[in-house]
Design goal:
CATH class of the largest domain: Alpha Beta
Radius of gyration: 22 Å
Largest sheet: 7 strands, parallel
Number of domains: 2
Strand content: 15-25%
Helix content: 25-40%
Order of helices and strands: EHHHEHHHEHEHHEHEHEHHHEEEHEH
Number of helices: 16
Distance between the termini: 35 Å
Number of strands: 11
Strand order of the largest sheet: 3-2-1-4-5-6-11
Bound molecules: nicotinamide-adenine-dinucleotide
C-alpha cells in the first residue's frame, strides 16, 4: 500500500448498498437514520464515537477518528440494497424483531422507502430459503451485468457520487476455491458456463469489483477471498475486506485468548455453544451452511495460540463450536464458553463465559464502520485486501502465505496506525522510554 499524498475529500453523497435486507441490514439502516436525527447513539461504532491518540502521551492530542480522517458524514449516506424477498426495510425490520416499535416508528417512512432490488438467487447455495424476488439471468455472467446495472441505476437515480457494498445476506453452503478462482480469465469463463463453484456472493462481489465499488463480506461465504478477486480488485483500484463479522462469541474469544497467551497459561479445551432463533439461526441449521460458519469460527484460536511454537501449552487442546437454532430467543443470542486451562506445574482451572448478546445490535456498528472506512480507503487510493480492517472479521483476509492477526488489540493497533499513517501522523509503538530521559 502506498502512503497517500492526499486523501480526496468526500464530496457528494455516499451510497451504501447492503446485500440482504435481514436483521443485520435493517438494524444498520434504521440505526443510521436514528443516529443522524440525534434520536439514539451509534454505540459500538469507531467511526462515530472512537478517538485516536496522536503524538506523545503528554501532548494530550486525542481527536475523534472522524476529525482526523475525512469520513463521509452520516447525513450524506444514501441507503439501499438487494434481497430475495420484496419486503421494504420497515417490513423486514418489523419481522426481524430486533428494534422496538418506538424506534422503528420514528423512521417508519424513511425506512419503508428503502425497497430491495431483486436478488441473485440459486437454490443450491441456500437450501433453507425459497427466494421469490429474484433476477432472471441466462447465466452467471449476465447476473453480474445485472448487478452492475443496479449499481449504476442507483447512483444515477439518487444522485450518488460513490458507492460501497457490504454483504449482509445469508450464509451459503460451504465452498472452497477451485481452478476457476485462479485468475480473471478463468473466473469469467466459468461465469459464462454457470460453474457451480460460483455462488451469489461471488456474483455480487465480481460486479462490484468491475465497477470499482469497495466490497466487504460479512458472512463466512467464499466471496472475494481467492486469487482472481484480488487480481481484479488491484486492477480496478478497489478495496476489499472480509470475512464474517466478528461480533459475539468470537469477539470475546479474541479478547480472552490473547490474555491467556500473554501470561502463558495453557489450554486443554475450549467448548463454545450458542442458541439463536433468528433467520440466520434457521439458515445455519443446515449442516452445509453450518460448516461454512464453523470453519470461520474454529480458525481463530490456533492463530492466536500458535500451537507449533508452544506445543507444551497449546499442542493438544480440544476446540468445539456448536450453534443451535432455538426460535424462542429470536435475535437475542446466548453463548456459553467453557475454557479448561492450566497454570503453574500443570494445575487445572476453568473459566465460564455466558454472553447474553444481541446479534444484530453488535453487527450494525461493524457494517457502518466498514462502509465508511472502505469509502475512505478508496479515496486514499488503496486497493485490494484491506488487512487493517481485519479488526471487524472472524476470518480476516491477508496476503497469500501471510497469517492474519486475530488478537483484537493487535488488530485495533493496526487499524489506528493505518489511520495515522494515512494522514502522515507518527505511528504509536508504546515504547515510552522517552518519558524517563
Ligand atoms: N449478526 C451477527 O452478529 C453476525 C455475525 C457474523 C456474521 N453474520 C452474518 O451476517 C449475515 C446476515 O445475518 P442476519 O442475522 O441479518 O440474517 P437474516 O437471515 O436476517 O438476513 C439475511 C437476508 O439475506 C437475504 N438473502 C439471502 N440470500 C440472498 C441473496 N443471494 N441476495 C440478496 N439477499 C439475500 C435473506 O432473504 C435475508 O433477508 C449472515 O450471513 C450471518 O451469518 C452475522
Amino acid at each position: 500500500m502506498k502512503q497517500p499524498e492526499e486523501i480526496r475529500k468526500p464530496g457528494g453523497k455516499l451510497g451504501v448498498l447492503l446485500v440482504g435486507m435481514g436483521a443485520v441490514a435493517t438494524t444498520t439502516v434504521a440505526g443510521i437514520m436514528l443516529a443522524r436525527r440525534g434520536v439514539a447513539l451509534p454505540i459500538g461504532s469507531l467511526t462515530q464515537l472512537g478517538t485516536i491518540r496522536l503524538g506523545k502521551r503528554t501532548e494530550g492530542r486525542e481527536p475523534l477518528i472522524r476529525d482526523l480522517v475525512p469520513l463521509a458524514d452520516l447525513k450524506d449516506v444514501e441507503l439501499g440494497g438487494w434481497d430475495i424477498f420484496p419486503d421494504n426495510a420497515y417490513e423486514a425490520a418489523c419481522r426481524a424483531q430486533v428494534l422496538e416499535c418506538h424506534h422503528l416508528d420514528e423512521v417508519r417512512e424513511e425506512l419503508a422507502a428503502v425497497e430491495p432490488m431483486k436478488g441473485v438467487f440459486y437454490q443450491e447455495y441456500l437450501p433453507r430459503l425459497r427466494g421469490v424476488h429474484v433476477k432472471d439471468a441466462k447465466n452467471k455472467l449476465e447476473a453480474v451485468e445485472q448487478v452492475r446495472e443496479d449499481i449504476r441505476r442507483f447512483k444515477a437515480e439518487r444522485g450518488v457520487e460513490r458507492v460501497v457494498v457490504v454483504w449482509c445476506a445469508s450464509t451459503e453452503t460451504f465452498l472452497s476455491p477451485t481452478d476457476v478462482h485462479r485468475d480473471i480469465t478463468s473466473f469469467e469463463a466459468a461465469l459464462a458456463k454457470n460453474d457451480p463453484g460460483i455462488s451469489p456472493t461471488q456474483i455480487y462481489a465480481w460486479a462490484c469489483l468491475k465497477e470499482g465499488v469497495p466490497f466487504a463480506n460479512g458472512a463466512p461465504n467464499l466471496g472475494v477471498d481467492f486469487p482472481a478477486a484480488s487480481m481484479l480488485a488491484r486492477e480496478t483500484g478497489t478495496p476489499i475486506a472480509g470475512k464474517d463479522f466478528k461480533t459475539g462469541q468470537t469477539l470475546m474469544k479474541t479478547v480472552v485468548a490473547p490474555g491467556l497467551k500473554a501470561r502463558l497459561l495453557g489450554l486443554r479445551g475450549w467448548y463454545s455453544t450458542n442458541i439463536l432463533g433468528n433467520r440466520d439461526g434457521e439458515v445455519l441449521d443446515d449442516p452445509e451452511a453450518f460448516k461454512t460458519k464453523e470453519t470461520s469460527k474454529l480458525g481463530v484460536l490456533d492463530s492466536i495460540l500458535e500451537p507449533a511454537k508452544h506445543p507444551e501449552l497449546y499442542g493438544n487442546y480440544v476446540h468445539k463450536v456448536r450453534i443451535d437454532y432455538y426460535p424462542p430467543r429470536g435475535d437475542a443470542k446466548e453463548g456459553w464458553d467453557n475454557i479448561d486451562l492450566e497454570g503453574w506445574l500443570g494445575y487445572p482451572m476453568q473459566m465460564k463465559i455466558n454472553f447474553l448478546c444481541r446479534d444484530s445490535i453488535l453487527a450494525a456498528p461493524v457494517v457502518l464502520d466498514l462502509a465508511l472506512f472502505l469509502d475512505l480507503a478508496k479515496r486514499a487510493g488503496f486497493r485490494g485486501i484491506q488487512e487493517w480492517l481485519g479488526f471487524y472479521f472472524k476470518s480476516p483476509m491477508a496476503a497469500p502465505n501471510l497469517q492474519p492477526d486475530h488478537d483484537l488489540f493487535v488488530q485495533l493497533m493496526k487499524l489506528k496506525n493505518t489511520l495515522r499513517w494515512m494522514v502522515g501522523e507518527e505511528l504509536i509503538h508504546h515504547l515510552g522510554n522517552e518519558y524517563y530521559d
